[in-house]
Design goal:
- 29% of the residues are buried.
- It is globular and about 40 Å long.
- The protein has helices spanning 14-25, 32-42, 45-54, 62-75, 91-103, 118-132, 135-138, 140-163, 176-190; strands spanning 4-7, 28-31, 82-85, 110-115, 167-171.
- It is of the alpha/beta class.
- The chain has a five-stranded parallel β-sheet with strand order 2-3-1-4-5.
- Helix 1 crosses helix 9 (176-190).
- Bound molecules: BIS(adenosine)-5'-tetraphosphate.
- Residues 8, 10-16, 32-33, 36, 54, 59-60, 65, 86-87, 89, 93, 124, 128, 136, 146, 175-176, 179 line the site of BIS(adenosine)-5'-tetraphosphate.
């Protein structure tokens, strides 16, 4: 079993790279962003609550995403491994993930953090906003708010894993293919 966290700021390519990695390494892809957008599309009570926060560039409450992840782990008991994409986004979520995995005799094996400069990130997100229909991608003010939240709440998560000696930084500013190659190199060293 191999469990990987793909970490990085909004627009760093977590979603893009995750799709390729889960196919190559036969992992179950758990993207909290995609799962929340699924709840929004279904107009479930959780989705209605999440929509209000996401459209303002804020994080949804920890209990909400931890509950979603718990259900997904339960649904995929036979998985060869998991790729966590966009989760954990707070230290509280990271601690909860350790608990959920510990209960199932599992652990995180690697945390790969994509590094991309700020101007490139803003450019990518606003560009995606032209076609994604995502309100949180289209308004520059909301995009800036997402970065402020990332800096305040999510960056400390990198330190949490650095202290456990699990964190590796990967350059995410090249092409999709170059970034994929760099990520695969790190994974192959770890397994
Ligand atoms: P997410 O869905 O996780 O989205 P993201 O951070 O915007 O994007 P990602 O890094 O995956 O970028 P992508 O590959 O798509 O989160 C959305 C929101 O949901 C959050 O703001 C939050 O409100 C909520 N949420 C999610 N998880 C949560 C949690 N755990 N706790 C609380 N709230 C949570 O790439 C972006 C763009 O760049 C794409 O258009 C792509 O084509 C392009 N791109 C990718 N790689 C490129 C490359 N190498 N070169 C050029 N362009 C590239």
């Amino acid at each position: 079993m191999y469990n990987l966290i793909l970490f990085g700021p909004p627009g760093s390519g977590k979603g893009t790279q995750s799709e390729k990695l889960v196919e190559k390494y036969d992992l179950v892809h758990l993207s909290t962003g995609d799962l929340l957008r699924g709840e929004i599309a279904k107009k479930s009570p959780l989705g209605i609550e999440a929509k209000k926060l996401i459209e303002k560039g804020q994080l949804v409450p920890d209990e909400m995403v931890v509950g979603i992840i718990d259900n997904c782990l339960e649904e995929h008991k036979d998985a060869k491994g998991f790729l966590f994409d966009g989760f954990p986004r707070t230290v509280n979520q990271a601690e909860a993930l350790d608990r959920l995995l510990g209960l199932r005799k599992m652990a995180i094996d690697s945390v790969l953090a994509l590094e991309v400069n700020y101007d490139e990130l803003v450019k990518r997100i606003l560009n995606r906003g032209k076609t994604s229909g995502r309100a949180d991608d289209s308004d520059e003010e909301i995009v800036r708010k997402r970065f402020a939240v990332y800096h305040r709440d999510t960056e400390p998560v990198a330190n949490y894993y650095k202290e456990k000696d699990l964190l590796k930084i990967v350059k995410g500013s090249g092409t999709v293919a170059e970034t994929f190659e760099a990520l695969c190199g790190e994974i192959e060293q770890a397994v």
